Amino acid sequence: MAAANDVQTKKEIYAPYNILPLDSAGASQSIMQLEEVKASVAALWNTRGLSWPASFEQQRQKAGELDLLDWLRAMFGFQRDNVRNQREHLILLLANIHTRLIPKPEPLNKLDDRAVDALMNKLFKNYKTWCKYLGRKHSLRLPQGQQDVQQRKILYMGLYLLIWGEAANVRFMPECLCYIFHNMAYELHGLLAGNVSIVTGENIKPSYGGDDEAFLRKVITPIYRVIERETKTSKNGKAPHSAWCNYDDLNEYFWSSDCFSLGWPMSDGGEFFKLTKDSAKGKQAPHKKRGSMGKSFFVESRSFWHNFRSFDRLWTFYILALQAMIIIAWSDVSILDIFRKDVLYDLSSIFITAAFLRFLQSMLDLILNFPVYLRWKFTDVLRNILKIIVGLAWSIALPICYLHQNNSFSFGKIKDMLSFLDKIKGVPPLYLMTVAVYLLPNLLAVALFLFPMLRRWIENSDWLIVRFFLWWSQPRIYVGRGMHESQFALIKYTIFWVLLLCSKFAFSYFIQIKPLVKPTKDIMRIRHVTYAWHEFFPDAKYNYGAVLSLWVPVILVYFMDPQIWYAIYSTIYGGFIGAFDRLGEIRTLSMLRSRFQSLPGAFNTFLVPSDKKRKRGFFLSKHFNEGSKSKRSEAAKFAQLWNEIICSFREEDLISDRK
């Protein structure tokens, strides 16, 4: 009880703080004497030109103890403790950037505009991208007078940090925070510019008022109720994924310009809040409405077919490669003779298989993602339907053109236009042209794969012509755009998989597939076989049952052995990486003791700042200067650090005092 009274007594004298004692009693602390901290504090206390509510902490107003974040609290109703936390947060962020500026600002105790701009770019990078994605102009509007620009920027940053600090679990919905900030920043600009409302004819005021904790009660709480209700609907994760929305699903609502239909202040009858409102009244929302909120791009539908849909390109590649190897082995030609006309004509049948697999993929997209169509736009649904139609058309057109011979039936003018292809005898010219048209999108995909910087620019572009061409290939979503590896990483990745697949296909062709061709032909030439179970093989002519039993185990191994090859190559590659990174070089305590003398040299080389530029290069081994007489001062620096490490280990009971 005495301790509690002591704390209460000190609370009336000292203000609580985390790192920075911003009250008058803490001005003598060493951290408050740093020039960069003084500069940030002075900028935050610049309240020139701001009009305060008459009833807001009049005593502190007269004493000049209020800063920009206090003004935001008075206008928008943030919590007092949130303002305290974000005040320290903002000061430390500004001071950290201010002290790292090159060249150093002069004078150092005045906040440099470069520090403010750098922090502003970091904080509002996602917000500006979000506005650009939705085709909206951002609300970061600056005054024309140069004197008030820095103050306005700090107000915007303070507003965003206060929203973020009070958002609680809504922080997991960053685009929702962007929507809130977008509207509140617009109101902030109206307050500072003295704009007049068209509706009321009075000066613009915050929609939710400046009452104590107004932001928490009127903005965050309604959104949190939506999250809470969806959490209860999930039944601790036991409910189907399509029956409830998680944070990501709710956040997807703000990836579309439809989110602005909520208005500001947010309408209780909006689509985002409608389910919660109906639940509060005891109504049961219809299933269609449940599926329409949040689930915009992905709905998990657990099925065995997801193994094929999720890795469709891998399965397609394996199936086409298997078909090509069987054709080559069946033709009894060497690898160098695959460009013969008859073999090339047979190999071209893989495009028919590819078209059929593409059609199957489109059907799986329609079936497995069916619930999400209730939320998709008409253009997105149209794209999936058109993909099915196009896939079906290619699945019909390619076999017809493949089987068509020049003298079978006439195509009239089309055949005359393709007469130049008659020089390639052995392959129908119309089929060649059809395959060329079919491969055009694949050639474009290969070009984008080889040049990831071009693909990154295309996906991040908001030009209408670029969006039109991307409309067919993928849905336009906010996150994940332009996330591709560098060119060098792509080259390493490609080389790894090319070597792996070459080894796998060489093994499959020469060890698995080619040795089975001759026995298969011999089995199919056998006639008049009397089966014990003739019911299963009535009128069997080519012994397909025996052939099937011969090939099924080989095909199963063919699809599974890439895991073995991956384990082999990843082990080899990991061994090289470990050798060059010198992993496991120190394996015993005696080796550790012998290397301990080089620790001061490594510490001074990599952690102690120096004016000399360290040479960069590739070395299989690294040598550091040991603690010689000329390096006693450097060794002393390391000794101080090492003593702190040992003391920390002892405080955390990682080692005992006897060690």
Sequence-ordered SSE layout with sheet pairings:
Elements lengths: L1 H12 L21 H10 L13 H6 L4 H9 L3 H20 L13 H11 L1 H10 L14 H18 L7 H20 L20 H20 L13 H5 L19 H10 L6 H6 L13 H5 L1 H20 L9 H7 L2 H19 L9 H26 L9 H5 L11 H22 L1 H9 L3 H10 L13 H39 L18 H17 L1 H19 L8 H7 L3 H8 L25 H20 L8
What does this structure look like?
The protein has 659 residues and is mainly α. The protein contains 28 helices and no strands. The relative contact order is 0.04. GO terms for molecular function: glucosyltransferase activity. Residues 151-267 form the 1,3-beta-glucan synthase component FKS1-like domain.
Distance between the termini: 40 Å
- H and E string: HHHHHHHHHHHHHHHHHHHHHHHHHHHH
Largest sheet: none
Number of strands: 0
Quick gist of this model?
It holds the Pfam family FKS1_dom1. This protein has 659 residues and is mostly helical.
Question: What are the main properties of this structure?
Answer:
659 residues; mainly alpha; 28 helices; extended
